[in-house]
Amino acid sequence: MKFIIAIIKPFKLDEVREALGDIGVTGMTMSEVKGFGRQKGQTEIYRGAEYSTNMLPKVKIEIAASDEIAAQVVEAIQATACTQAIGDGKIFVLDLASVTRIRTGETGETAL
């Protein structure tokens, strides 16, 4: 099993969610986060005053997937979240040791 974490631009969330649904992903967790990488923040104007922000709004998606579908999940996220611009985000893939469904007590891939 794999645990996939993707940091993407917020306006791409709906497209990514639809693409994941198309390949059979039945659930994911989404969090609104802030961060920066090569973008280094941005300069904005608020009420006539210019200021710069170090942290940019992003969306973090977390998905637990079976080994068979993990590569497809990564491909779907990369293909739909890409805008060819700096700040598109990152995808991290980690090994997932165990999963337990709280309601039924199922473990392993059956709990996904």
Q: Within the CATH hierarchy, at the fold level, what is the topology?
A: Alpha-Beta Plaits
Structural class comes to alpha+beta
Radius of gyration: 17 Å
How many distinct helices?
A: 2
CATH class: Alpha Beta
**What level of helicity do the residues show?**
10-25%
Biggest sheet architecture: 4 strands, antiparallel
Overall average residue pLDDT: 90
Main-sheet strand order equals 2-5-1-6
Strand element count:
6
CA-based shape: elongated
Q: How many separate domains make up the residues?
A: 1
How many angstroms separate the termini? Answer: 9 Å
Task: Provide a quick synopsis of the model.
It contains two helices and six strands, in the order βαββββαβ.
